[in-house]
Sequence to fold (858 residues):
Amino acid sequence: MSTIDNTLTSFINIASDSDFSIHNLPYGIFSDTKSGKHRAGVAIGEHVLDLSVLETEGLLSLNGGPYFNQSTLNAFIDSGRDNWTQARQTIQTLLSSDNATLRDNADLQKKALFKQADVTMHLPVRVPGFTDFYSSKEHATNVGTMFRDPNNALLPNWNEMPVGYNGRASTVIVSGTDIVRPSGQLKPNPDDRPIFSACKRLDFELETAFVVGKGNHIGQPIAVDDASDHIFGMVLLNDWSARDIQKWEYVPLGPFNAKTFASEVSPWIITMDALAPFKTACPAQEPKPLAYLNEKSSDNSFDIHLSVELLPKDAEKATVICETNFKYMYWSMAQQLTHHTITGCKVEVGDMMGSGTISGPTPDSYGSMLEIAWNATKPVTLKGGETRSFIEDGDTVIMKGYSEKDGIRVGFGEVRGKILPALSFDFDK
Amino acid sequence: MSTIDNTLTSFINIASDSDFSIHNLPYGIFSDTKSGKHRAGVAIGEHVLDLSVLETEGLLSLNGGPYFNQSTLNAFIDSGRDNWTQARQTIQTLLSSDNATLRDNADLQKKALFKQADVTMHLPVRVPGFTDFYSSKEHATNVGTMFRDPNNALLPNWNEMPVGYNGRASTVIVSGTDIVRPSGQLKPNPDDRPIFSACKRLDFELETAFVVGKGNHIGQPIAVDDASDHIFGMVLLNDWSARDIQKWEYVPLGPFNAKTFASEVSPWIITMDALAPFKTACPAQEPKPLAYLNEKSSDNSFDIHLSVELLPKDAEKATVICETNFKYMYWSMAQQLTHHTITGCKVEVGDMMGSGTISGPTPDSYGSMLEIAWNATKPVTLKGGETRSFIEDGDTVIMKGYSEKDGIRVGFGEVRGKILPALSFDFDK
Fold:
């Protein structure tokens, strides 16, 4: 599965820099304006292939199906790995240059192929649980340096476990959803009481999230060498954060209001099968993890190039403000999932598990505004000359990601979110 | 709604100390051994009234229904307050002494009435989100005294907001489910690395949880004076906790593995309509909360007597180890819900929001073993002479709760959970 057949081509015209090559085939939920119906599709070049049509036409018959004339992918994912494999093979064959079924059937193409520009993407799965980890050593070190103690930036548990916390599944939203600037409690002056205010230090967090493909039973942890069997795929995640709200609220029970207003994901789930050729090692782990976290395989990470762009309201062009890579993550997804379940916690199909902010070793690879502008001491200059320490009203943040090797590209597309002004509140009415 | 008609009686024989008087009528999901089918019922004395039968017989016709031949109450709750009111009135009438419909129809009684002892109770709702607050001042002070600084036991944000954190909805389980002792990372010796071990400081937390009855839209906070419209009812909650795992993991992102293995709830949802006669004031709040948390009504709490019993494996009798009251809670449920949504977080029908451990002012009213045995320095002596600092294998913890006034009792029944020995792990295989 991890070798690339780079002779494989599609009859559909796909630009060489497209994220959605025939080697990718990510799953999403889309609707067109005509029917408005939500159903499953696969991205191919600039198109979406409607999987519900393939099912109806008898071209994609999976055990226990049909699965794709539905508004989420949960049932398909829950149907198991054999179906994942069969679906991928069938779809890849149908899209390949040397298969006539779809290639030579203009009527079928008309029914089954949509331009991505003409459809609306929706959240690909119902998300029963959302968890966020904190697994970039560079990010944890940067935050610890700014907020706690530069000489002891990493807390002692950080090197021993993939630290994580429960997020809020109800506010996992799909790319393109505008976000109202949150209001809440801030404490700008340490000597005064807190105030109620719109957030003044609004930030993004560049993350990926994996989608759980197979659950466990309560009380039965997932062994670390089995964990990859439980992962279906990955998305990009912008875990929007209100830094000033966070700073005041987070001791002792962790971030809450600062993180629960919006966790925005890219619409296409890139399967682990598509990412397999881009496996690479995690950074060396020192000390060696406790046995329950100790993986046999060292190829437990992925080489995924990631970037963040910022587009102010009236700007002509976005400015790239971060370029980094998923491979910098210290803890692997398998370790995260095993740690999550080690006390018996149940995970479910569709659960999303965020990586935590992915920062690289250099300032241009930091994955949050907090780090890039170093707690507002080093504002970033954008293309039009504007500067930013945090995100302002009207700003759009765009995150992108792709893997590339031997001329083959497998990409995530983007997660894009725009900030709307805060609500006005009148508490005297 | 808040006056009690204590002339109202049922034709069903109900003991005077029953939690399930005709004034209560809590909702749950049950199955009998014959059909195995999960459907909704109401507890009345020692019986369950099958609401799906009432619907089938045309005795309970709600707008948009039927609702009760289902395995969760979410659809009924989501149908709105008019239906809650109508269902309560209809069921109360059908069960009253002076109504002949059910009273004089032996066939209907046979179909619709089951002994509670003969049925199995299930989780009453699908729980999309689980949140835990920390709203007992006594509990927060006790924990802060033991773990941080006796002179500054309460952290500065505690008096300003109902501090809370996201829990794990997937492991909300119903009373009667046994719990495997969790294993995970502990750090018994500060100078050594952590170890992997079964939890040695397993604890309960006496809580209630409210069930969200009406959601909001993302980005649209719920105003504090509207919050009670969004609450359907309450349950008892034992938020099982692994204190040693918690201590090592919780800085900086809050409790995670220590709390995600089991949050156990009582099976009957007591409606806010049934609890209305027992309204009382929260403790005085000083300083006065910020405007967004400032309630017009001062009757924002409830007088609910709560207790915890511990029953060791081979003991004949349980020992009451805590008696307290919900009215000690500093922050109201309305304030919790408003704070939860103030930055725009969406809440959904069926969400459960835990109160946090409910401790009273005296040691016999503390709501966790950690506090009762004061961090293992004051072990509790049980009836048989055994002592406990934390919960041991085979122990059963039973929590009960009820309100009583003018000879009328409205109770929760119980949440009961037993601890099974930890799994054994073999990481060398």
